[in-house]
Here is the input.
Amino acid sequence: MSGSGTDHRLEDIAVRDTRVSDAIDEPMRAMILDILGEEALTATEVHENLADRGVDRTENTVRHHINELRDADLVDVVRFEEGRGGTTKYYHANTIVLSYSLPDSTDPAVEEMVEAIQPQIRDALVMLTDKYDEAIEEIVADM
Here is the structure.
């Protein structure tokens, strides 16, 4: 992807909360957030969904990752069901995943889309900075 005449690729995200950055540092956790964003599921059901996506991990490993996401406040326990001498927990994501790494085979299509929309984005950014430059600088200073 190119912008302002310089080739660059956005691959990282800045996160202020270290619990969140540690939790999403593991790629499988992004898949778990995606799965749990659709519906509340048990750890066993998440494990089955991951297996359907070709992820071969033990159910205990999946439980560990769900617990890490829960500890980072990215996943909530939304329901408990009693039965068979135990309690089953249902988890649901309270956070969405904004990005996945795309396969290299998609680069030409993505590059074409970027080139098609880039002039409009550049014009919008120029208009925003011309009109709201001071407000933007104040917001950035407060961050």
Residues 2-99 form a domain with the Arc Repressor Mutant, subunit A fold (CATH 1.10.10.10).
